[in-house]
Protein: DUF4124 domain-containing protein
Organism: Duganella lactea
Amino acid sequence: MYRHPLLAVILLASSSMAAAQYIWLDEHGVKQLSDRPPPPNVPRQRIVKMPSKTVFNPYAEPEVAAKDATQPPSVAERNAAFNQRQRDAAQQASQAADDAKRHADQRANCDAARHNQMALDQGLRLSTFDKTGQRAYMSDAEREELRKNAQKVLADCK
């Protein structure tokens, strides 16, 4: 007589383990019940119920240790970000200094070319020094060559 109620309790307890552990809404809004996890195309916000401990999900991607977006960065991560910003700032400062030096050199080169062009246009006698250190005056061909070079440099000047 006691065997039947005891058997009923055992059957009732074991049937609850076979009940649906996952409940989710499909794309049409219909509730789906299953003892298996929902397919991977079901977003997490449409999963109504799931067991607290997942045993095995055949659809699951291998878990990668993803950082929770709500968790603040660690001290090491903040330090690495700070060091990267420092390196970037130093590189930008170096680049700016190089650009300033290049522009200053170009201005000086343009000024020298303008000066040479004015001297050539005035028709003055220009002298140079040869390899032995002797003064020599420029010929007309040398003056014309120097004029062409000065014009090329001035074409690049603004």
